[in-house]
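Input (structure):
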């Protein structure tokens, strides 16, 4: 068994069509043990084993293979570049220690390049840079060596700037919202400054390769430095530094000088010694027979041995590839860079362990023995201990469905297996698909037949009794080595290796942590770049196939790490995917693999949100109070709604899982489950930071940021506005909907007389005095977030009003439930509310419409009468308050100029100048808002950035390619939510509006109203629409024959 120092776990990351799978083919051809012939490299796409991957020529599933290079084992994962399959990138990044980041030198750094660099940074991976498709600079763009050098320099500089922005915690991408910088002092700050001084990628350090995966060649500066060091009599170390940057060689003096001494007379040494010979080979090779003699001389001078058959090819491209692949073999340059620059598991884990296993605060009084075992497991993971005595810890990043025919028919000893026993949970109902767990061993040894504890993300090892909800015991049936399309059985696997495990299909849905001991913290959940936003409802064509569809949906949910399968309130089965391509693949898998039935698929169901018109800063609205009374007259409800600062809304919307754990009081409240279904991953946060403190700081910073961004000239107004929201954040009673949404419920205003007095006595209409008490609530969320100190005692005093006050305390949950119902279904089209702050005052008195006398006559005391009378009219008081709060909140939103909120994609389109007009035409038809248009440096391509509504994005790629004859390629990434400024209930009122739009009878519906009506129509809600329009014209219209 090879030592841990000779293992490398790497993944290939890049934007779509930047050459990942082609490069993987060449690496497999050279180090894959003969799986791919060198002539088929780049054409076979070995790791794209799905039919739709081969047809579309894009990678949809991350695939793993083991390579051997110079006594080293390299576990390579090829990941997708399309944004719809960003979840596959997350699974690949979690199991790797290093990454090869590819950038097309013609297209440059794209939005997905930013995204994969960000994911690698968050998972603490060490990256290497590969500048791919250098051949396109020569053959397509016709660059000179000097122009190509400048192009490569600018790309490296741009990528370094992205990494430096991560380091300085100031990075704000187009798809993220707010990043705050935590304070660092002392040695920590000094270390960061020293780190910032050195660029992440530098060719002279050997972590940058220049390649052409299509032609099968690559090189690093080291190769040319060693070559020219012997010729020029210089050391290889000096030549490495001199071959990149502003260093020039003077032939007469044979000295290396700087830019000032060169005075523009000489070319940089990289151009002179590296690129110019490369350009000469290409110039000669493309001439065909005319350049055959010169090419032979070059081959002789480079001491290359090339078969005559390869040089006699009629296609000059094949001759060029034969020469270049032997002069500068791609596998040699890239794999040597992997071995030298990327860490082995034992070296990488000390840096990554804080991200994978954050330091825990033990909430329970755990015994010293348990604490010691937890620490020993953590040290075993950190040191990548590979002994059999070490605790075995494995992380499963996803479940993979493979045909049963692909399973090996032999065991690890080579013995034939006649009947392969597969448990029920590992296969589908038809016995056609088998589920394997794609995992990495982080410590210890795993073997077939071993029993492991399967830990969910909410498992707490300090609890003495094993919780069946969060931990299960499973037996590992088989361990396999993944070799792309095939599997090889293993008798055992030690720490540092990537494997596939059979036997966990019953216990794992998507991801899990496996441990040989129950005293192990589960790994932090993976972070995803985006969230499932595209939804469709599906049903079988034949109702008799409903059972098969339900089973197929369960299998699909397990096989895809990102898809969400739910059942709507109307009973529809709904699939949520990341984008159009992802959705298409999910439906295809459901039809052909998992359910195997004909399906009826609805049009895409796009999610919307409801909010109110944004207020002017400093404006106080006294007319937005809605007051209602419960049917029995005992309870008065007053609701006021306002718009939350946009920055606060974004923080709440992006911290869904963390807020859920904080509110529910889970142990993860001190250790975040960093799932980023949130698009919110904060590079500034370190693994050991208290997540509650981090969230509180982001909320407070969001208030300040929003106050600074508003257009208030008076500084005192800014301070007052910030102070107002700071005080409100200390009165957060609840969040909604589902108790974790981006809407706040504040406690009643302290200026209210009922709040000040705690209770009062008022006169009723018949002159009798009545006791009135306010449902106060308490700042639960503010308390959990640390914005206020914990309330010591909320018990009522034993005064004369204790019975009423006890009843009022019991009604607090009814107020919260009414708020949750209201925020879950807004008044416009029953979509969730977004970015709203509610202040609700509920006062309860002893007044009764009827039933008092009957209660007294029955012999009940006054305390019992107060409790019995609540059901005398309109049902239980708790239910009346719940429905009353719900309707009052909805009425308050309607009274404050409601608006519809839609999700926006960040759209990046690259095209040629000839088709720029067609691109703009397509964007305008889909309500896209163009942000900027820029010409890509060193090329004839234009890059157009725009925001496009998700509801208008379906069919966008096909429409764009059809209008531009395939000369435009789009990329869509979920960006943010934005309210539509149009009033859905617009009616002309002023003279100018009436003159422009008419008296209101013929006003066409605006975009907001059309969207609302379409959602209401889909949900079966009433829609105001005219069945017959212009009836007079229809009645008098002449018949045309």
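Output (sequence):
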């Amino acid at each position: 068994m090879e030592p841990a120092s000779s293992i490398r776990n790497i993944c290939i990351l890049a934007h779509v069509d930047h050459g990942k799978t082609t490069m993987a083919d060449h690496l497999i051809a050279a180090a894959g043990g003969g799986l791919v012939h060198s002539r088929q490299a780049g054409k076979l796409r070995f790791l794209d084993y799905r039919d739709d991957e081969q047809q579309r020529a894009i990678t949809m599933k991350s695939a793993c293979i083991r390579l051997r290079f110079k006594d080293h084992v390299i576990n390579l994962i090829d990941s997708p570049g399309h944004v719809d399959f960003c979840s596959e990138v997350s699974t690949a990044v979690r199991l790797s220690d290093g990454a090869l980041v590819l950038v097309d030198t013609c297209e440059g750094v794209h939005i997905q390049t930013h995204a994969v660099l960000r994911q690698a940074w968050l998972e603490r991976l060490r990256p290497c840079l590969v500048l791919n498709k250098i051949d396109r600079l020569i053959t397509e763009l016709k660059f000179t060596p000097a122009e190509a050098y400048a192009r490569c320099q600018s790309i490296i500089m741009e990528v370094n700037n992205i990494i430096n922005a991560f380091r300085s915690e100031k990075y704000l991408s187009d798809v993220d919202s707010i990043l705050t910088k935590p304070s660092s002092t002392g040695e920590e700050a000094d270390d960061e400054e020293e780190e910032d001084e050195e660029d992440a990628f530098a060719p002279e350090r050997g972590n940058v390769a220049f390649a052409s995966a299509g032609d099968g060649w690559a090189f690093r500066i080291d190769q040319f430095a060693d070559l020219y060091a012997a010729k020029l009599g210089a050391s290889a170390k000096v030549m490495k530094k001199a071959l990149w940057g502003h260093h020039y060689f003077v032939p007469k003096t044979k000295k290396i000088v700087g830019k000032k001494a060169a005075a523009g007379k000489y070319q940089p040494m990289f151009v002179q010694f590296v690129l110019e010979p490369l350009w000469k080979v290409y110039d000669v090779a493309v001439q065909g027979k005319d350049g055959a003699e010169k090419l032979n001389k070059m081959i002789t001078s480079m001491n290359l041995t090339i078969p005559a058959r390869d040089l006699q090819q009629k296609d000059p491209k094949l001759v060029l590839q034969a020469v270049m692949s032997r002069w500068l073999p791609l596998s040699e340059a890239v794999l040597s860079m992997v071995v030298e620059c990327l860490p082995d598991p034992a070296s990488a884990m000390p840096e990554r362990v804080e991200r994978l296993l954050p330091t825990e605060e033990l909430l329970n009084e755990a015994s010293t023995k348990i604490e010691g075992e937890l620490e020993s497991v953590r040290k075993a993971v950190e040191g990548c201990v590979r002994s059999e005595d070490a605790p075995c810890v494995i992380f499963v990043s996803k479940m993979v469905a493979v045909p049963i025919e692909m399973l090996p028919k032999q065991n690890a000893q080579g013995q034939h297996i006649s009947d392969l026993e597969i448990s029920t949970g590992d296969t589908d109902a038809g016995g056609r698909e088998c589920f394997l767990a794609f995992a990495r061993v982080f410590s210890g040894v795993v073997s077939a037949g071993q029993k492991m504890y399967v830990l969910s993300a909410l498992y707490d090892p300090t609890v003495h009794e094993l919780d069946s909800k969060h931990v299960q015991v499973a037996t590992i049936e088989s361990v396999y080595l993944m070799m792309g399309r095939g599997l090889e059985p293993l008798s055992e696997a030690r720490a540092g290796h990537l494997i596939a495990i059979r036997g966990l299909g019953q216990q794992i849905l998507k991801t899990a942590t496996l441990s040989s001991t129950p005293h192990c913290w589960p790994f932090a959940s993976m972070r995803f770049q985006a969230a499932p936003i595209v939804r469709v409802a599906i049903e079988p064509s034949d109702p008799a196939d409903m059972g098969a569809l339900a089973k197929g949906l369960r299998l699909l949910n397990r096989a895809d790490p990102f898809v969400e399968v739910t059942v709507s309130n109307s009973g529809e089965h709904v699939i949520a995917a990341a984008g159009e391509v992802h959705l298409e693949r999910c439906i295809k898998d459901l039809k052909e693999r998992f359910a195997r039935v004909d399906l009826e698929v609805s049009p895409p169901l796009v999610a919307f949100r409801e909010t109110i018109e944004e207020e002017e800063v400093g404006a106080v609205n006294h007319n937005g109070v809605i007051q209602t009374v419960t049917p029995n007259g005992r309870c008065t409800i007053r609701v006021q709604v306002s718009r939350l600062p946009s920055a606060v809304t974004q923080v709440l919307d992006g911290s869904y899982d963390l807020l859920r754990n904080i509110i529910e009081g889970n142990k993860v409240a001190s250790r975040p489950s960093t799932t980023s279904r949130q698009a919110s991953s904060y590079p500034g946060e370190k693994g050991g930071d208290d997540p509650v403190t981090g969230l509180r700081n982001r909320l407070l910073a969001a208030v300040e940021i929003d106050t600074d961004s508003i257009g208030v000239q008076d500084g005192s107004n800014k301070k007052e506005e910030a102070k107002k929201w700071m005080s409100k954040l200390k009165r957060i009673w609840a969040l909604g909907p589902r108790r974790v949404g981006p809407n706040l419920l504040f406690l009643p205003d302290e200026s209210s007389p009922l709040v000040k007095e705690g209770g009062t006595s008022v006169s009723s209409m018949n002159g009798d005095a009545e006791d009135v008490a306010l449902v106060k609530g308490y700042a639960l969320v503010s308390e959990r977030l640390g914005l206020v100190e914990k309330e010591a005692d909320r018990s009522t005093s034993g005064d004369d009003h204790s019975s009423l006050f006890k009843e009022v305390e019991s009604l607090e949950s009814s107020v919260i439930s009414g708020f949750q119902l209201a925020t879950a279904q807004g008044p416009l089209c029953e979509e969730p509310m977004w970015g709203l702050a509610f202040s609700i005052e509920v006062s309860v008195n002893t007044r009764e419409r009827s039933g008092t006398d009957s209660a007294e006559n029955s012999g009940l005391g006054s305390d019992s009468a107060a409790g019995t009378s609540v059901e005398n009219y309109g049902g239980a008081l708790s239910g009346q308050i719940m429905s009353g709060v719900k309707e009052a909140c909805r009425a308050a939103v309607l009274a404050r100029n409601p608006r519809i909120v839609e999700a926006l994609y960040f759209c990046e389109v690259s095209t040629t100048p000839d088709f720029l007009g067609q691109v703009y035409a397509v964007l305008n038809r889909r309500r896209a808002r163009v942000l900027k248009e820029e010409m890509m440096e060193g090329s004839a391509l234009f890059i157009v950035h725009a925001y496009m509504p998700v509801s208008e994005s379906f069919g966008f790629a096909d429409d764009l390619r059809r209008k531009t004859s395939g000369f435009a390629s789009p990329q869509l990434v979920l960006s943010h939510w934005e309210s539509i400024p149009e009033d859905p209930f617009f009616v002309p009122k002023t003279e100018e509006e009436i003159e422009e739009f008419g008296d209101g009878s013929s006003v066409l519906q605006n975009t907001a109203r059309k969207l609302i009506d379409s959602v209401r129509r889909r949900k079966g809600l009433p829609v105001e629409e005219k069945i017959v329009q212009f009836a007079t014209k229809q009645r008098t219209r002449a018949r045309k024959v």
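Notes: The mean pLDDT is 81. DSSP finds 35 helices and 36 strands in the chain.
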